[in-house]
Protein 1
Amino acid sequence: MVQGTSEDVRRLNLSTILTSLYLNGPSSRSQLSARSGRNRSTVGSLVADLVALGLVDEQDPAPSGMAGRPSPIVSLRPDVAAIAVNPEIDVLTISVVGLDSRIIQTIKHSYSEIPSADEAISITAAVIQGLVSGPRRVVGVGVAVPGQVRSQDGVVTHAPHLHWIDVPFAAPLSELTGLPVAVANDASLGARAERAFGAGRGVDNLLYLNGGASGIGGGIVAGGTSLLGSHGYAGELGHVRVSDSTVRDSAGMPGTLEALVTRAQLLETVGLGCSEADLLEERLLADRSDATAAVVHQQLYRLGLGLANAVNLLNPELVVLGGFLATLLRYDADFLNATVHEAALGPSAADVKLVASELGPRLLPTGAAQLAFEPLLNDPASY
Amino acid sequence: MVQGTSEDVRRLNLSTILTSLYLNGPSSRSQLSARSGRNRSTVGSLVADLVALGLVDEQDPAPSGMAGRPSPIVSLRPDVAAIAVNPEIDVLTISVVGLDSRIIQTIKHSYSEIPSADEAISITAAVIQGLVSGPRRVVGVGVAVPGQVRSQDGVVTHAPHLHWIDVPFAAPLSELTGLPVAVANDASLGARAERAFGAGRGVDNLLYLNGGASGIGGGIVAGGTSLLGSHGYAGELGHVRVSDSTVRDSAGMPGTLEALVTRAQLLETVGLGCSEADLLEERLLADRSDATAAVVHQQLYRLGLGLANAVNLLNPELVVLGGFLATLLRYDADFLNATVHEAALGPSAADVKLVASELGPRLLPTGAAQLAFEPLLNDPASY
DNA sequence: GAGTGAATGTTGTACCCCCCAACATATACC
DNA sequence: GGTATATGTTGGGGGGTACAACATTCACTC
């Protein structure tokens, strides 16, 4: 784990180079050298290793217009891929994502009833069988689950909307596919993805909060790494209590963010049905009636209290809002900012910025693939 | 920062050995070898370096009763020391703490009025002048402040009870003493100290919450390291809102843990004055009247809600309670446990244990010294 | 009390990794 | 075409750890 021998140094430096490419895209050797702090000759040797491992390609340098010998461009091989899986109540999304973070292919499997975990696993395994063939090198599977996942063994402990309670997911799927499988909470992965590729690029302390049909999920990045807690359940900001109200959320808990800040109420307010959620943002932002404003501000106020609590606890630099929470933010960002700044302690509140998610539909495929790529990025030579 | 060269390997291995001694006390070379995973010969060389640096001593092995060549006992030199400082509203405590974590000497400076930061700094500097002399090697100063501290530069941003707002502390004290000075929030240091030496030994995810005369402070250890957030203000659990009540805390925020869970109310309930806080625990635990129980349970309930919020967010393995919060816990641990388990999500709640602080009065000297020793432990060769 | 086995310190060698310096190469600019 | 600039390439050097062989010390046994 921690370094102590020269082999570990090599592993770390290979990892640094590969991760640098993963986060920053194709780069010249000299850029890699500057970013990693390693010597030119060291970077040359590291890149040669990565080429030999089949993980990166070197291309002739693009004309840079600058003096000096051109530096070859190193890029990640897109045929090294991961499978990203996202089971939801009405559809199972499976994507193939290249190491260059491009989504190569996406397959959506709809079902009429909420599937059991076993059903989801066997469907996933069957789809993966079809995807793995070909000249592609699939290094693993990452699964984003809307619920609590035990990080150690990939057991879905509590996914209320899917009615999955304490079901093993990683192990059986790995058994069926022969691939390493990693499972995590969807919002956790969202937080990481926004940090790597979205609104939180380069931010070491951020909070991601997503609002969907089924509720509110949260993920935390603290000190540059995903905050998982002792078993991987950290980040459940949706179930933080923000009021003495007795309205209950999906987990049966009263007065929580998820109970009081709901997409359903917003849809109803602007006269949309549950199936028309796509239109919510447009309709809501166009509707400036007092009645709507009252509902939205009520929700924004509660959201602000919840965020303030989290800000007091975590002192993040950035809060990224996704789903209908981003819509709420766009409706009246000033109001939400004011609420958070009032309800959070001065110094912490002064730091924090609230922004909308940037990755949109790419979020979960990217995040799940990131999870699947993690072992490769940490130890390139083992592949 | 991150390792990449063989010098970094050496630094890391020296740090590993020294930290291992710091956390586990005197150890034989073979124990160090087992704990660090380094080869016998490597450990021999590392220990020799540490001896040459004047940081550790080797003693003749105690008879172990086991077969085989006895392994010399390596122990930290107690004459390598740090100064631990803790300004409070009525007294300034300054301790000399050895690298073996023993408190060598403590000086308390009382004052009639709350001192300004400048006064506290000059008193501290004067006391330190007297302490540094002698055959002792003082490597730094650690300061535990009851308030928010910007970790980057040791500026006390907001310490309401001391009336210190945005006052530089580390820089001027360092200037006066010629020693490196690190400043942090007291509860943050408490969390680290309990993890290293107290109730949270070996626990990688814990929450520490202290209740004192002036309010409630919190510190977080997540993933094995102190969670500071973007500027070091993380952990302010006292100002998390747990109710719609309009009772305000010291920061003027309504319905927070600190507003509703107070030592003053407990003292009043059992008929003690503010100056008799020492007697609170004894008196409270002896008093089983209904009136007292009602007050205590009300506080325990609020505390439980606040803890549940934090547990949902952080999924700690352990919550350590200090000060009068430990008294509350002792009064009715079952009730507090039940409240937390009810208000937190199932899986997270199932993990968490609530315990009382173990370090007592040693907490802050140990924690502040730990902060001061940190650079030494991370890079022994630079001293 | 001498012998045996076990555990550990010590020493010299081998290997790995990174850095550095010198040289080679490729481009821009004049 | 020459010069300056930037970067790849190569060989040597230094630092660090692991390993194997040997040395040391203790407990146990006969």
Protein 2
Amino acid sequence: MLSDRKKKILCAVVDSYIESANPVASKEIQEEYLPECSSATIRNELSTLESMGYLIQPHVSAGRIPSEKAFRFYVNELMFESNLTAREAEMIEQYLSRKVGSLEDVMTAVTHVIAEITNYTSVVVKEDMSDTITAIKLLDLSNGKLLVVIVTDSRVLKDGMVDLPDDFDEQIIAQAQKWLNKIFRGKHVSEFINFNYPFALVNDEFAQYNALFKKIIDVLKKVSLMNGMDVEMYGENKTIAHSEFTDVNNARKFLEQMENKEKIAEILTNDGGADGSMTVKIGAAENAPEGCAVVTTRVNLGENVSGSIGVIGPVRMNYRKVLAVLDKISEIIIDLVGKGE
Amino acid sequence: MLSDRKKKILCAVVDSYIESANPVASKEIQEEYLPECSSATIRNELSTLESMGYLIQPHVSAGRIPSEKAFRFYVNELMFESNLTAREAEMIEQYLSRKVGSLEDVMTAVTHVIAEITNYTSVVVKEDMSDTITAIKLLDLSNGKLLVVIVTDSRVLKDGMVDLPDDFDEQIIAQAQKWLNKIFRGKHVSEFINFNYPFALVNDEFAQYNALFKKIIDVLKKVSLMNGMDVEMYGENKTIAHSEFTDVNNARKFLEQMENKEKIAEILTNDGGADGSMTVKIGAAENAPEGCAVVTTRVNLGENVSGSIGVIGPVRMNYRKVLAVLDKISEIIIDLVGKGE
DNA sequence: TGTTAGCACTCTTTGCGTTCGACTGCTAAA
DNA sequence: TTTAGCAGTCGAACGCAAAGAGTGCTAACA
């Protein structure tokens, strides 16, 4: 357990370092945060904080920088909440009020405002994990192709196409649709992924169309897999504008990690959480990208669609601001989705 | 008009600079490209080439680097075509043969191979400017929503949804579908964008549903507008790995430009060109992003869908390789699309 | 026992001068 | 017109010294 003074000092180091990215000296703390004690006292405290693993001294004649452990402690216990400036709040309202269109539009708008305000990279992940199927529709496009549409109780999944043999008529397509619905109605989309073709279920007059059936089911599989997640990202270059990325190699490493959307999506989603909950991951040890921290909030985007809104920046991130922004955003989204239903 | 020897020397400078990114010295040219004359002679030639604007000398004790004018001349007249290595050709085949799924999948695959092989950023832009409408389908999703699908002769456009009043039955939807088809079949998708609702065309028994009709048409408008262009990009960090971007500010500037997808799409598409045609834009003067060159090829992706495949890299780009790769890719795509019909 | 002033010590940063090496441009001769 | 040779220029690399930033330690003090 840390003494009050140690907490104050640690908080000062973190706050100062977040702002300036420079090692923090005892004298600076004394002058700007703790005028009631001397720099020598602070030096002593800093020394013990270092031995406890909260601080790091790049070299002997430098100040201290916070370790990831310190940031963790800061986020958990030291940081006090802050509010957005009027300007920022207004900016968010503006970006989001105009875009009451499709979910995609909202996602785009969200990533853009967040990146603009926080100066970090923003990601939104949409998940349709547990949608149940209302119907499967087959639509003859009259050009030898069959459009397969999966309708779910919350929305329409992306569609897929299948080539049609010449001798297929409306009757047979209707019949096929009936069968598919019999099999899949009420099931979860995710069940497609490990689904094996049920030959036994299909009656004899359909035997010759097994191949087509299989194709359709393959499309369904693929479509539901792809549709499970939708990742949108914006502002990669906002993050690399920060001083930890002045070394191009760092910048490149960061961008490479950002290119792996699956991995990013996993980071944003792998610890569920209720609507409006916040998660902060600091550093590679907590599964964030190397040298980075990720702040995530979850929002319910509809009865069966859940979304994760995240901010990715350096470990030395302005957590207060980021949390405030995400708070505001998720509040608006929840409101917006609520209205939509 | 340049003498043969000047051309040879200029070509040598460009080739060497593309490979090494270092200023090229007279001695190097003599030893590796022109053993038949002395370095002093080459120095004289270099000097006149510089005064002609083809070369730049960073400082007096350095070699020469090519100007954008030199690259232009190189691409137009000096460069000889090259072939892909067996490994590269194989890689392309592999990436593209597996992905005969949707157009989106192919686009993604294309950007990935290109970035992988060339080590530059790759962009694909798909345009549906003049698709004509085969049919408009209304699909009752049995949950109070109506799915509007526009079917075109080449493919299905993204769909949109409309809320349905309670008292709508199948009959009325079928009727509405009939009307919409009567109005729009055979028209260009682009015609939606400036379309005004034709009250006069709708007969009396439908008058009460004007509002719904209007809604549907709004969806159609929006959907066709959004679908006009689709931009996919990959490998931003491949480009910034090159030495002209070791300064993080350059890297950032580059990435910022890459974030403006509309601008990029315009660069890739604003000078039409036939199927398979190649365009090379060098430097800001030719409308490429600053410090960059853009090589584009156009492919027909269907009767009414045209695509542009582009590579964005530093002005000091390996044009031979890039052109060879794009050539191969467009050949495959043309073949692939041909088969699909 | 906790706090503080003072000072020695360490290490980085900056600036400067020197050397080294890379090329060129020029001159004069072939 | 070409070429050898040489003087001259400029950047890169290196070493060194001085300046600056901060600390840790010691000894005194409350």
